[in-house]
Design goal:
Layout (H helix, E strand, L loop, with lengths): L12 E5 L4 H12 L3 E6 L2 H13 L4 E5 L5 H14 L4 E4 L15 H29 L3 E6 L15 H20 L4 E8 L5 H9 L1 H9 L13 H8 L10 E4 L7
Parallel strand pairs: 1-2, 1-4, 2-3, 4-5, 5-6, 6-7
Helix pairs in contact: 1-8, 3-4, 4-5, 6-7
Length: 259
């Protein structure tokens, strides 16, 4: 057997939140290219349809669930709808974002709770519901949580510390769940991306160009990552190639957190 066969995910099904654009899209395409069918969840119908079409051109099935998983009730419905389509073997909790540049001392409680629901509660609910189905099937599974380098360090020149809080909690949730579910042959790992010029960061670059310039200047490799750089890492964690890895937090940031 070729070493590349261990990266195949043929016959598996992926459920990914925020899967139609940016990093989510590239991870979905990479795992589809590895052989898996995909259930895409997102808010924007046109981008969902575009990514689903690209997946189908790879010869894989693609299903769409248009909803906002930042709303807990909608998140639960999305998970139930996905499970009704068939077993889920791979879960990627990708949705999230800073969205707000509000200082802690001015952050309204309602806004804080809504942003925590987006970045943390959605991952909890998907892990709970999709993961429970994995446990009941008894065939193992893969859970991949998309955290951030802000799980480890605070963002420079920017507010909205709900993001650091949620992503730090998500990393620890990854580790704790990995311990609990290891006997069920379910691995739970986290990816911690650094600077990638996705649509939200392009928006930040227009609103706060000084923040993006400062960020870029601190990257040892001298530039931001491209969304497609994340695809191979996601495929590795989704496949049998990572069978013996669980509870890991894998940083991909061009060296930003090294100094």
């Amino acid at each position: 057997m070729s070493i590349f066969d261990r990266f195949r995910v043929t016959g598996k099904r992926l459920f990914i939140t925020g899967g139609s654009r940016g990093l989510g899209r590239e991870m979905a395409l990479a795992i589809a290219d590895g052989g898996a069918d995909v259930v895409l969840v997102g808010r924007d119908q046109p981008s969902l349809e575009k990514t689903a079409g690209d997946i189908r051109r790879l010869g894989r099935q693609a299903s769409i669930i248009q909803t906002d998983v930042g709303i807990p009730g909608e998140c639960e419905k999305a998970c139930q709808a996905a499970l009704a389509l068939g077993p889920i073997d791979i879960l990627i909790n990708n949705v999230g974002g800073r969205r707000e540049n509000i200082p802690t001392e001015d952050m309204p409680l309602e806004k804080w709770r809504a942003l925590m629901d987006l970045n943390l509660t959605s991952a909890f609910l998907c892990t709970k519901l999709i993961g429970k189905a994995m446990i009941q099937r008894g065939e193992g599974g893969r859970v991949i949580n998309i955290c951030s380098i802000n799980s480890l360090v605070a963002g420079r020149g920017i507010n909205g510390r709900h993001y650091e809080t949620a992503k730090g909690a998500l990393m620890q949730f990854t580790r704790a769940t990995a311990v609990d579910w290891a006997p069920h042959k379910i691995t739970v790992n986290a990816i911690l991306p650094g600077g990638f010029m996705t649509e939200p960061n392009q928006r930040w670059s227009k609103l706060h160009p000084e923040v993006i310039a400062t960020f870029k200047a601190q990257i040892p490799q001298g530039d931001f990552g491209q969304p497609e750089d994340l695809g191979p890492l996601a495929l590795y964690l989704a496949s049998d190639a990572s069978r013996y890895m669980t509870g890991a937090a894998l940083v991909i940031d061009g060296g930003y957190t090294l100094w």
